[in-house]
Write a structure and sequence with these properties.
Isopropylmalate Dehydrogenase, 2 domains, homodimer, eleven-stranded mixed β-sheet, about 325 residues, alpha/beta, about 15% strand, 11 helices
């Protein structure tokens, strides 16, 4: 399998991306060939510095970079020689099987939605985040910002996609699906939540266990928590800020450290036909390594085929 | 001024309510006569035990209690001799000027909305929570659950009511009003947030400073943060659970302690014609004292008149 990596994306590019490649290739389980898209000279020098064997990498030269604050659609259209545009081109033409970048999130989303297709049966692709649970486990929250206005059937699909991902990638057996809501009982919530509840209850592809409230996000009540992207984005950014504030105030604890989102393997765009993973701008080597491992696992475990199956059946 | 207190509400009633009364009456600034509604014999004994002078209290006997899990409307209707029903009756007939309870939240809301009237000009009364800011200041978030389906004009009114409260009760000069959203710039957000943005921008009664994101909730970006009750309830409960988890994990810090919502003076129902304050079930003496002080301040500063003025002008 071939996995493409945007070497120019993120605040610490390309050095941390190179470190991530070195980390990944030193893993026993590493089985992909990596396509490193970026400034050829720099990448050649850095990979040599980090003693990365040429056997498992291909350097794909790019001449431009899409900045973190550029307008996504405009930049993708005008900068055809940028690492992100080249990455999506390789993905669309099948030269790579998955694509990863910690660069401009908007450009990554636009690329995911328009350069490659949505997965068969998917109305709206989605993005998720892992949630560090109090008991040491990891949950999944989705959507976290791609779809700020949702219809009930969108959330019903998020539940399916999230369940497949939680099962195959996070390793959770029969993940408990919870609906983000303002009360425990059926019938609680706004009009949207009430409509979604009925759909989830009747969905045989998921293990729906009822509503979850704000107080349940960090506990074990549900593994996959479903909401619209407006609510999810606020939850995610609030969780990130908890970590940042405790960090600034020098409050240290292993549990708080798990809110350090740079440790996670980025956010896969779920519901598109090929794995695309968007990293945090602040991604360091470990995050890049984890993103490559998640992409590899998504390909190995045929996550997208299984999502499609659960959605169209 | 006369302030009514439900002595039977809350997990630690009536003892902690009595402690709160004693605390309050020992404050220099205490200027209200308290109407203590509850089991006469118990309250008489406890107030004597706590050496509470009879000069500033009236005991109003009640024979029933609305349990924490009773159906609000049904219980209020059937238990006319309950402390909450008696409290609203006293409030509606003008015998008390404000009413406080840490009892059944639903019954308190139903009482607020149906026993007394909405403030002139108010479409939807609302409930708020104080938010402990990273810099030591205190912000206000509203709505936190009373209105889970909102129209843009509701949020526009929440902004006005929140601003008046933040100014007069929290002591914030020209409170910065922020709209809870998923991005900084105008034009971001779901359909509702976009519509609310336009209204807030044109509202001359508030100091609107733009959107706030999840990461800004705990920072100084805005003093009054406006959202629908679905979003606000999830934010509030998540913040509460963050405190509880750090507490369970024995992570201690002064800042985290400020998330201990039992220290705060309850949640006033804003937009009804008389001050009503709903305490947390877990309210202890300090919380009861603070609730009485907030009620007193709301009456002294004529908070409701000023809200009305800002809303109808």
């Amino acid at each position: 399998m071939n996995i493409g990596l945007d070497m120019m994306g993120g605040d610490f590019a390309p050095l941390e991306a190179v470190k991530g490649v070195a980390h990944y290739l030193s893993e026993q389980s590493a089985s992909a060939t990596l396509f490193l898209i970026g400034d050829q000279q720099t990448i050649e020098k850095l990979t040599a510095d980090h003693k990365i064997s040429k056997e498992h990498i291909h350097i794909v030269p790019s001449e431009e970079v899409i900045g973190m604050h550029e307008h996504p659609t405009k930049a993708l259209k005008e900068k055809q020689r940028s690492s992100i545009a080249i990455g999506f081109n390789l993905l669309a033409t099948g030269k790579i099987d998955a694509f990863i970048s910690a660069g401009n999130t908007g450009a990554m989303l636009v690329g995911s939605l328009f350069s490659i297709k949505a997965l068969e049966g998917v109305i709206r692709p989605t993005i998720s985040t892992v949630i560090p649970k109090e008991d040491g486990n990891t949950g999944l929250l989705l959507d976290v910002g791609l779809n700020v206005d949702c219809k009930p059937e969108h959330l019903n699909q998020f539940a399916v996609m999230g369940s497949v991902f939680a099962h195959l990638i996070l390793g959770i057996d029969k993940p408990k699906v919870g609906l983000m809501n303002v009360g425990e009982e059926e019938g609680k919530g706004n009009i949207q939540a009430q409509a979604v509840y009925s759909l989830l209850k009747g969905n045989k592809h998921i293990n729906f266990t009822g509503n979850v409230e704000g107080r349940d996000i960090l506990t074990g009540k549900a593994d996959v928590m479903v909401c619209d992207g407006f609510t999810g984005n606020i939850i995610l950014k609030m969780a990130e800020s908890f970590y940042e504030i405790t960090h600034r105030k020098k409050i240290h604890h292993d549990y708080l450290e798990r809110f350090n989102f740079e440790n996670y393997g980025g956010t896969p765009v779920l519901g598109v036909s090929k794995p695309v993973i968007i990293g945090h701008g602040i991604s360091k080597g470990v995050a890049f390594k984890n993103m490559i491992l998640v992409a590899q696992k998504m390909l190995e475990k045929k996550v997208l085929e299984k999502m499609k199956k659960a959605l169209v059946e």
